[in-house]
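input
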Amino acid sequence: MASPGNPLIVQGDKSLLLEVQNERYEAARDSLARFAELEKSPEYIHTYRITPLSLWNAAASGLSAAEILAGLADFSKYGLPSNVVRDIEEYIGRYGRVKLVREGENLLVTSEDETLMVEILNHKTTSRYIQGRLDARRALVSPGRRGHLKQALLQIGYPAEDLAGYVAGDALPIGLRADTQGGKPFTLRKYQGEAAEIFHAGGSERGGSGVIVLPCGAGKTIVGMAAMAQLQTSTLILTPNTVAVRQWMTEILDKTTLGADMVGEYSGLQKDIRPVTVSTYQILTYRKRGSGDEFPHFGLFGARNWGLIIYDEVHLLPAPVFRITAEIQARRRLGLTATLVREDGMEGDVFSLIGPQKYNVPWRDLEKQGWIATAVCHEVRVPLAESARMEYAIAPQREKYSVAAHNKRKLPVLQAILARHPGENTLVIGMYLDQLDEIAALLNAPLINGQTPVREREKLYEAFRTGQVKTLVVSKVANFSIDLPDASVAIEISGTFGSRQEEAQRLGRILRPKSDGAMAHFYTIVTRETVDQTFAANRQRFLTEQGYKYEILYENEILA
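output
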């Protein structure tokens, strides 16, 4: 119950202030992460906010208003504002008040609330997708508009529970091996099995769509394969890049009973459609400049009778793929990600079209269990080089970050950090190609960027895995779906402005457990008193929510 010694203040605007130094901080943080979003994370007080979408994701994962309110009361210093209590009860109560169901060949929208049905039938956002009213509680929906109606219902504040079911897809016998092709024992970890079971929901219409949130290195690919084994159906897998395509294919052949003739690659390099086909978002959104064809590769969605579509790194899903996804709601859809944060604000579309968050395990929980490496985060603050101070002062606002990120005083600090970790597999990560070229030459290290051919990337990644190459300089192409299990140090020299999702992915490159049990170290080098430091603070917000703390260091401490 409320007590002055508790760490949380719940405010009437649904913001939550959490004291970091309180002994109950970690327990409160883990409770809040289930239904609130972290907004700010300075040293002593973290600010969370309860939003309709955060509550609807909580409701979809089975959390009740009573459980949320009990958690808030347990950690709060003071009594809960009455408006917050009522809003939580109301918003949680909205999820599922509208349902999509199938009766025979007909798709219906239904609600026990007859007045709400009148609103849906008359609201300009939703009415365009209704074909006709059947009675006071049911209306006919245009079959191809299932996804569009779900988007519209979310916009008016009544997220639908979709119980309309799915097509089975072409049958595909598939099992998980007891031993990998390499002869190692293979079993699902407990949380991987739970995630797949919750998504599958016994094959009922209550399962079959949703997002599984697990840290990088926790085996999201294995969750996808477990879902495939449960559904026994032809599967389309969408990934961020061709290297990820190859890694999915390797994992499927290593850990399932499928043979190579059953798994195909559909990418810029190869167009092979098989019962399990692995493709990229890039090829799907390709269109020839000046061509009348709009996304010619969208035909892949209808190329086979897919029973399951897996969206790897779903937080990266491009807007055109949302559009086609709205039209294929009869296919089961599984989203996999380490973070539901989207910098474009389209989290609502993920909720509506892929499905709500169904399963989430805190990063630190898996770290304590030994499934991901223990990580220490460091922010190293460096003064702006004297020669660049005037350039920064007069630069237009949109160019200031580039000046600060290119700070020449970062380079000696980079070399000093490398000297701290001799012999360790290290990734140096940045966004500016000219800066990365300079660093690769300085360190005499290979560079991977968007221009590096896929075959060359794979060779360099393999050399890194085997220890032939100890330091790799990489651009943002290495942010996603790259399996580098022995990378133990990551040094971020520049980032994509304030992208929280990118920071999570970059830390994820080093979270796979190390063969020798070593800790992982994540460094970000930022220029003091510039927008570089401001953006860094925003990027770190997501990791702070996961329980990571940044050790703040200064140039002289590293160079000493």
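quick obs: The chain has four domains: 8-94, 98-162, 190-361, 368-559.
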